[in-house]
Inverse folding.
């Protein structure tokens, strides 16, 4: 059948990129656009600079609506990869729409923080990476980059109930030819990438899968746009092909946001490598994602708040931490585009789905963690992420479990950091805690985040990423607290 997926849309879009024939909105144009909208907005419109890029550009966040404790907070982010411009243009289009429409229902019940261009230096040269070559969506747990630190501090301070991150994906992939020679590209306008991390409280996951994604999918379909869950082709040892679907890593925003107790979705729009081809279609897709998430929040605000409150309770009282999981395996049909004959083709493929994972290895949740003074650097990172902790004012002897490193295999590196895969033994005993050690209580909404970064076997945690040094035969400077609390 003939494809309509790759036809450009005929509509007017108000953002700087569509006032010129080449290129995308640059930083100066964006700031001018935001300042003009701020001057004409009939509601509270604040431009707040949350930090500075490596090349000295101030990172803007637009706060729409008056901040109030009884309002639902929504975080809308794009441009984390600098070569994915549709998210930035779509959020600028949404800002313009809000100023023009002045939607009182949104303003009465919600406050929005919109960050259209988060990787400014990369965006200015249309590069995925920050100025020093780092991938900012692989830095969510390492927190080495100034842009990431600024974003995480702003996120923790805003503490959103809902958070989305808009990206673009590369439709033309060499791996597609391993599926079939007649496949030219992935056909979907939008791919959904919620987190499949099993340590995220179930009420938040239910809101994503039962409320938000069905509504977003239906809205896209009604506008003639296609969608499914994010996938990548992979090859087994026997050369057979399967699709790896979803993700669960706290190193990227979907999981990072969700572990902060937010309803979280990362969206991928078909676009990397296309330049300005189908740019209205891509920008409008981004606009629809933002506007539909906001509208869905408004229509389900009571259910959302209930899920949010339940999740806070669950986070501090979970009995088990999931250390590893196995994805569900099944077959499903997917659409691809045959560019040689301008036609869609359907292929039935094996899927390894992280969104439907089951737990493999678990560990009893502690009643808190202790970080010793020699590991103060990881305590500072956890503070940036919004994890509550308290320095001990006096020495205390308490019952703890200590991690003894029994084995470690280092597999290459990522961004100049060794990737450690350790085995540990837990040793129980009473330990004298020194003054200035940090106590992290379990009774807090971000305790799940702390667990995912401090448990040494966790993928992309502090040990796995080499942020915390390990030596075989020695104990980590992190303890698991076994008593309910330290008085």
């Amino acid at each position: 059948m003939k494809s309509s997926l790759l036809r450009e849309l005929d509509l007017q879009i108000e953002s700087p990129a569509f006032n010129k024939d080449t290129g995308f909105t640059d930083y100066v144009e964006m700031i001018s656009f935001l300042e003009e909208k701020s001057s004409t907005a009939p509601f509270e419109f604040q431009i707040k600079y949350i930090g500075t890029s490596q090349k000295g550009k101030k990172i803007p966040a637009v706060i729409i609506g008056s901040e109030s404790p009884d309002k639902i907070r929504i975080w809308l982010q794009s441009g984390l990869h600098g070569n994915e411009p549709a998210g930035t243009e779509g959020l600028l289009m949404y800002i313009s729409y809000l100023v023009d429409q002045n939607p009182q229902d949104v303003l009465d019940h919600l406050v929005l923080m919109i960050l259209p261009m988060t990787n400014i230096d990369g965006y200015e040269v249309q590069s995925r990476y920050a100025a020093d070559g780092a991938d900012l969506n692989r830095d969510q747990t390492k927190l080495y980059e100034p842009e990431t630190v600024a974003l995480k501090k702003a996120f923790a301070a805003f503490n959103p109930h809902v958070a989305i991150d808009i990206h673009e994906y590369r439709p033309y992939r060499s791996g597609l030819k391993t599926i079939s020679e007649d496949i030219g590209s992935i056909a979907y306008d939008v791919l959904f990438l919620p987190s499949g991390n099993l340590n995220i409280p179930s009420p938040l996951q239910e809101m994503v899968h039962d409320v938000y994604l069905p509504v977003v999918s239906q809205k896209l379909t009604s506008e003639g746009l296609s969608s499914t869950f994010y996938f990548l082709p992979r090859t087994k040892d026997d050369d057979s092909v399967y699709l790896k679907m979803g993700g669960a890593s706290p190193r990227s925003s979907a999981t990072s946001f969700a572990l902060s107790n937010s309803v979280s979705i990362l969206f991928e729009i078909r676009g990397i490598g296309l330049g300005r081809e189908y740019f209205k279609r891509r920008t409008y897709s981004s606009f629809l994602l933002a506007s539909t998430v906001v509208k869905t929040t408004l229509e389900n605000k009571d259910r959302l708040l209930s899920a949010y409150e339940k999740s806070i309770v669950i986070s501090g009282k979970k009995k088990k931490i999931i250390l590893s999981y196995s994805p569900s395996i099944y077959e499903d049909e997917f659409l691809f585009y045959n560019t040689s004959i301008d036609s869609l083709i359907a292929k039935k493929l094996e899927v390894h789905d992280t969104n439907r994972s089951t737990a493999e290895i678990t560990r009893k949740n502690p009643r808190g963690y202790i970080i010793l003074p020699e590991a103060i650097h990881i305590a500072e990172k956890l503070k940036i992420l919004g994890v509550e902790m308290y320095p001990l004012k006096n020495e205390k002897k308490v019952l703890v479990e200590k991690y003894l490193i029994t084995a470690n295999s280092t597999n290459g590196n990522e961004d100049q950091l060794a990737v450690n895969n350790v085995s540990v033994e837990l040793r129980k005993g009473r330990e004298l805690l020194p003054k200035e050690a940090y106590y992290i209580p379990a009774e807090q909404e971000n305790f799940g985040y702390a667990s995912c970064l401090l448990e040494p076997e966790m993928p992309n945690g502090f040990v796995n990423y080499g942020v915390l040094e390990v030596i075989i035969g020695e104990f980590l400077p992190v303890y698991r607290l076994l008593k309910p609390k330290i008085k």
Summary: The chain has a mean pLDDT of 94. The CA atoms of residues 407 and 423 lie 5 Å apart. The longest strand covers residues 343-364.
